[in-house]
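ingest -> validate -> predict -> emit
validate: passed (alphabet ok, no gaps, 431 aa)
predict: started
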Amino acid sequence: MKILIKDGHILDPSQNIDCRGDIIIEDLKIQEIILKPGEQHQRHKENIRADKIIDANRHLVIPGLIDMHVHLREPGFEYKETIKTGTFAAIKGGFTAVCCMPNTNPVNDHESVTEFIIRKSKQEGFCTVYPVGAITKGQKGEELAEIGTMKNEGCVAFSDDGRPVMNSTVMKRALEYAKTFNVPIISHSEDLTLSEGGVMNEGLLSVKLGLRGIPPEAEQIMIFRDILLAESTGGGLHIAHVSTAGSVKLIREAKKRGVNITAETCPHYFSITEDAVEGYNTNAKVNPPLRTFYDIEAIKEGLADGTIDVIATDHAPHHVDEKLNPFDSAPFGISGLETALGLCLKLVQEGVLTKKALIEKMTVNPAKILGLNGGNIKTGSLANIVIIDESKEYKVKAEDFVSKGKNTPFDGWTLRGLPICTIYKGIIYEW
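emit:
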């Protein structure tokens, strides 16, 4: 089928394209891009025959988003999420590729698990799934997993996300070994001796609520350690879900010294503070925890100056019954795929980022860090494209999520900017 995306505002940071134009798709690929830079306020009149015409006038047309940090829960926790439901949530949110973390059951610490995830995603998935393998066997932090064989099977990075690698020798060896395969190590930066038993940010509010806190130092100490290890080994280090001002400062200084380091944050870390936990709201319980307004401002600054390279969701769906538990025993995590774009566009609306810079952090940068083909709208590439109605206001309704996880602190929020069409390998999903 020949598809024509007509009169859209095409924004592709990888090619420095930012103007009105048409895109012709045929045989699952982008066949031609017709740019009209001189017609910013004028609809393109040229007639192009196509089987399907998508009118993108007044809409933003961007590459399919790449989320380098999600939890699809399969295998082992299908009652929380499956590859099928998680990738459908991704498509609805504008993501055409996701990278799934290894804390499944069994843990993705062996090529057989990697093979299962890839095979299942090809059979039932709605978007591309890139597995992230475990750094250590069973995520126990003791013995390195088979990084080489898992890389050959399809893993694009390695992380014990959900748990840190507390043993510094093991982490150093992981960075050295991964360097030989040119893949990054993704650090879940948490000093368990400081965070053990903690359920929210440590501060006056945690004291008031009678909840054990997780101090910012628990994140920052491990980031500092991993920076030193990356500096000594030259291995590629990626810091996951940055949540504190001190972390931003450490990463910024490391980059200035030339350390091979990149970093991500998530929408909840620049959208809400620890105050969302008031009333023992378990849907605001995440790890690392929500921090303070001061931290939010520092993260926004880090996004603006390039210290933080990527915005990822850390999509962590849970069954509703689990989040109904008392705060201390409820699991950490937010279901984030279906609210991410609207929350991220607030950064543009507030003047924190340009549209180009935002899209770069959700397409070009994750693709570059992980060595993926994608994150662009180039002639000859697979047609992975998202069309956004930037003026569309909508109310977040958790009950309408297609993800099994309805756990979100943003239920009832009004956001502006909605993916109205996602095209994945030429397949059209319209909302």
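Residues 40-44 have pLDDT under 50 and may be disordered.
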